[in-house]
Amino acid sequence: MSDVQLSRDLGFLRVGAAAPVLRVADVDFNVAAIVDVLNRAAGDGAQVVTLPEMALTGYTIGDLVHHAALLTKAERGLGRILKESAGNGRLVVVGMPVSADQRVFNCAVVLNSGRILGVIPKTLLPSHKEFYEGRWFSSGRDAVSDSIELAGQRVPFGTDLLFSLRGIPGATVGIEICEDLWAPLSPHEHQALAGATVLLNLSASNEVLAKSDWRRVMVSSESGRCIAAYCYASSGIGESSNDLVFGGHMLIAENGVILQEATRFSSDSQLLISDIDLDRLDHDRRVTTSFHEAAGQLGDFRIVEAEVDDLIPARLHRAIDPHPFVPADPTRRAERCKDIFAMQVAGMAKKLSGANRSHMVVGVSGGIDSTLTLLVAVKTADSLGLPRSNVHAYTMPGFGTTRRTRDNATKLCRALGVRFDRVDITRTCLSHLKDLKHDGEEDVVFENVQARYRTEFLFNKANELDGMVMGTGDLTEVALGWCTFAGDHISHYHVAASVPKTLVRFLVQWVADEETADVAARKVLQDILRTPFSPELRRPENGEIAQRSEEIIGPVELADFYLYPFVRFGMRPGKILYLADEVRKRGLFEGQYSLDDLHRWLRSFVERFFANQFKRTCLPEGPKVGSVSLSPRGDWRMPSDAEASLWLEDLEAMYSRLCDGRP
Question: What's the per-residue H, E or C state across 464-508?
Fold first, then answer.
């Protein structure tokens, strides 16, 4: 096993939500159940654990909450939990009633290694419908003292407490209780604006029809609005069922995404564990300038420091998507393809009308990218009421063109009813190579002469037709510079500039299934989907494609796996390598790779990304369709001469540590 630490090296924090079995007003039983579930959480390496609201006594104790016997017993029970937590480096939050200022408060008590770090009273007390908290508790707004005596310790008290985890950058915990989530201007919003990245909610939320759906929406949306993790723990079926039923609903969300959700109505103690990516949250708060603009009216918060143990994880408690651009669920994937195709068509239609043009010029190779562009052109013509003959498709076989791709391009164009012509460019390219005094060696000059002549031909045709040249690359190629500068790199409008290669094939498949009525066209599209990725700029071998893109730039599933976090979250290459290795160990990639393969292609990705910024600086216009775009006018501004060395150093450092940990 490597020596890579979860928090300090990877930027994760392991949080837990626990709903122990419970008996109303039976503090001894509840303490034992709490200690048991905390021991389980410790075994899973949880660094922060939250329990439900009033977990020590039960939420449904009613008027018993004012009885001194119960309050005293609860404080003694807390002392037992404190004793059990001594020497354990984790942050634990327990719900209980606390008597202070001659009032009773519904509180979250924060424990750390045998110490009470602070007590947070509930702010918003529901007293409507089935809720009567105003009868039993005082709001945290009514607190007079800013510190209280509890379990033999003098501790901070109030709603203005945040907890910073020493030595873990970006780990600040904010805490609220149940109803505090549901109201406008909730405490967690102020906590997040004050720097809290992990928000905990101790809850006792009863079940009624569809309430779990609403909780899910609330937890997800609030984590997104606050650019934070939100950990929600509600009490289970042990609460009194006189008039209500409790289900033990627990959720952990991060920046709008539900990471974990508990099964409700369990008769056993429940524990959720998830690794929160603090680096992602920190990145998004840095780049979202409006987030900090909202913090201007904040009051002051007291910051209490806590110590939690770091760990060397045997595995991550977190789903890792091997194909982050492509939804795994077929229904969601189809919806995404439909939306992207509609955006591409709308963008192209607007570009034509804005330029007062009605003709589109497309170079069609028989490969998947130019196929997608052609399909967008056809749909655009249909949507504008233009004849398909206004789509001018040209296949331009060169030195590397195979019969398979040439025939597929021809068949597809004819099946779609566009205007089509075949222009053999070999003679012109040979003439140009002769002018260059080139010996015909298959080098970069040999390749680029073909790519640039094709582009020149298309632009000249567009001039002749008063039309627009449509680009035929994709986001993955843009990132890696897998295009010829001033060749296929250039167009009037690049409809797939922000569509990654792994998604292009699903888009083409979706169009084949949903938008293409012609049987012959669908048959050709299926064969194009099976064709290896290639620019076909080098001569075939025995009639087959010899130049395969994935043998040069790496498997596209790896390129897209690296691209997404690198651009979307500014993730360090070393962390990307660690996550890729986790995916490899789980067997989630389509291909079979070793750690050395992952390292090789990630290093290649970083080198290519930096070396090819000069191409992106003058990238044609094209529609942004997802959260990752490399348009120089939109999402990505980077100097062309930036050095990649520090990113490569980070990669090599992690690779060395992972190699040392190999069996």
Answer: HHCCEEECCCCHHHHHHCCCCCCCCCCCCECCCCCCCHHHHHHHH
Phi and psi angles of residue 116, each rounded to the nearest 5 degrees, phi first:
-90, 120
> What confidence score (pLDDT) does residue 297 get?
62
Q: Which residue has the tokens 């909450």?
A: 65
Measured N-to-C along each axis, helices 556-568 and 501-514 cross at an angle, to the nearest 10 degrees, of: 110
pLDDT per position as a tens digit, 125-166: 877 777 778 788 889 999 999 999 999 999 999 999 999 999
Query: Over pLDDT 90: what percentage of the chain?
Result: 89
Which positions are catalytic? 53, 122, 178
Pair type for strands 12-19 and 270-277: antiparallel
Under DSSP, the state recorded for 326 is S
Half-sphere exposure of 285 (CA within 13 A, CB side): 22
Would you state the pLDDT for residue 1?
Answer: 66
Tens of pLDDT, residue by residue over 304-350, are: 999 999 999 999 999 999 999 999 999 999 999 999 999 999 999 99
User: What pLDDT, on the 0 to 100 scale, is given for residue 300?
Assistant: 86
Q: Which two tokens stand for residue 269?
A: 């103690």
Tell the residue number behind the tokens 């977190």, with chain if given: 318
CA dihedral 608→609→611→616, nearest 10 degrees, is: 130
Retrieve residue 124's tokens: 């918003």
CA-to-CA distance for 358 and 351, rounded, in angstroms?
10
For 570-609, b/e burial (b = at least 16 CB within 10 A) is ebbbbbbbbbbbbbbeeeebeeebebebbbebbbbbbebb
Which domains can be identified in the chain, with CATH numbers? 12-306 (3.60.110.10), 330-660 (3.40.50.620)
Dig out the tokens for 377 from the structure.
């052109």
CA 616, 621, 622, 625 torsion-angle sign: positive
Closest CA to 199 of 253, 151, 237: 253
At 518-566, the pLDDT tens digits run 889 999 999 999 999 999 999 999 999 999 999 999 999 999 999 999 9
CA angle 433/438/443 to nearest 5° reads: 95
What type of residue sits at position 531?
T
Token reading at 554? 């790496």
What element of type H or E holds 447? Answer: helix 444-465
At 634, the amino acid letter reads G
Res 296: pLDDT = 66
Dihedral sign, Cα of residue 409, residue 413, residue 414, residue 415:
positive
